[in-house]
Amino acid sequence: MKKSLREVEALAQLIIEYALVYKNIANLPCGYISVKQISGHTYCYRQWREGEKIVSQYVPKALLSSVKRQIAARKNNEAMLKEVKKDLKKVTRKVVKSGLLTEGEIIEIIEAALQGADVHAEIEKLLEN
Predict the structure, then answer these.
(1) Which range of residues forms the domain containing residue 23?
(2) Whole-prediction pTM
(3) What 3-state class would DSSP assign to 34?
(4) For the segment 47-87, what is each residue's pLDDT rounded down to a tens digit?
(5) Which pLDDT score, from 0 to 100, does residue 27 have?
(6) DSSP letter string over 3-23?
(7) Which residue in 7, 19, 111, 113 is a FRET match for 25, CA 20 to 30 A apart?
(8) How many domains does the chain have?
């Protein structure tokens, strides 16, 4: 039983990390920086895709380095989210196999974490039932 509880604790930590990284991604700009030469002047644009359309937004030179850092941070967070999802999938399988929580309950906990709920409290509430 102790091993199962350790797996549930690992699940809680991964859900917290998932929610944190997901929220970080949501607050960072997506896309890439495109540099254009127009009439001998250099202009920088942040571009991203919305469906089939590419959207451009002018980036003043004063903000260029900040926007580049934010885009790089988003890409790093997206890579981290991919790893966290992989780990979360493994631990979810172990917890479901132990019979402590169902996959549906784990999804509910993840959704609650994305809304800002206390993950440990949500898990304890489900384990009491």
Answers:
(1) 2-29+65-128
(2) 0.83
(3) strand
(4) 999 999 999 999 999 999 999 999 999 999 999 999 999 99
(5) 96
(6) HHHHHHHHHHHHHHHHHHHHH
(7) 7
(8) 1
